[in-house]
């Protein structure tokens, strides 16, 4: 991170530093691993994809003259004889935030070369992600049983289904891919690949705990997208 | 290369900051769920949703994704493109208002 040093190069803070870094030789993102910079660029492009989805949802919902289904009722659950609004979504949100927290700690322990702790925390993150995907599968099958389709639904405007399946499906795909990588990375951490600098697949670059931070960026991004989906799709 | 490794090792943050942010995220999520629970409506609902959303997004990006500690060269490359998204939102708001207006208009006058 920021207290990185390069011989013969003076780091300046703030916008002056930005101008100096940007106009300097060799690298613009000083002290940032190239993999981390590339992950950020990927996440930036992914931000645009999710923004386009959410903006198209806004346009669809705003331009229909049929009432939009009330998400509070559509996503409500009937538990112990009471109707609780949005219960499943609230639990999913808490599960995802929990897994985001364990990931942040995994990155910290990774940089401290605490192999065991890092591995367990990544495993906990993976299990949190798996729980999330499981609950999403439950939510999808419940709505499909109730007759929600991409072209029609019993609650209101027919566009609801197509936006719901596209946005949550794309997010769920991201979570699923993240879970797969979390399991692989927890295996690699326990095996000590990042301690001994073992090479990964398709690369000649030696393993390092910075890879945990790169994976962490992806996982936090998935949580970040859920913050926006939760606000715009489920609460609005 | 060994020099950079040594630097990275010293640059971790205290566990307290992560736990604080974690707790804050739980509290903010709980608040945004309460917005739905108490069925706030209208501007109050929308403004509360947006405030909690931006606070959560900001905390995640600043501390969990370490942007608070990154150099401005990276932070600015990542955040300025968001203005393009903001422009797109304004364009599409104008677009859906026009669409819904024409729909109502032609339902009334009929073609």
What can you see in these coordinates?
The complex is a heterodimer of chains A (236) and B (111). With 236 residues, chain A is an all-alpha fold. Chain A folds into two domains: 1-31, no CATH class; 33-235, Cytochrome c oxidase, subunit III, four-helix bundle (Four Helix Bundle (Hemerythrin (Met), subunit A), Up-down Bundle), CATH 1.20.120. Helix content of chain A is 67%, strand content 3%. Chain A is built from seven helices and two strands, in the order H-H-H-E-E-H-H-H-H. Chain A has a two-stranded antiparallel sheet. The longest helix of chain A is centred in the C-terminal third of the chain and has 33 residues, at 159-191. Chain A is globular. Chain B is an all-alpha fold and 111 residues long. Chain B folds into two domains: 2-70; 81-111. Chain B contains five helices and no strands. In chain B, helix 2 packs antiparallel against helix 3. The longest helix of chain B has 28 residues, at 82-109. Chain B starts with a helix and ends with a helix. The model of chain B is unreliable at 5-10 (pLDDT under 50).
Brief account:
Chain A has 236 residues and is mainly α. Chain A is 67% helix and 3% strand.
Key phrases:
heterodimer, A: 236 residues, mainly alpha, Four Helix Bundle (Hemerythrin (Met), subunit A), 2 domains, two-stranded antiparallel sheet, 67% helix, B: 111 residues, 5 helices, flat
Layout of helices and strands:
The complex is a heterodimer of chains A (236) and B (111).
Chain A: H1 14-22, H2 34-63, H3 71-74, E1 77-79, E2 82-84, H4 87-111, H5 115-145, H6 159-191, H7 210-235
Antiparallel strand pairs in A: 1-2
Chain B: H1 2-10, H2 15-37, H3 42-64, H4 72-79, H5 82-109
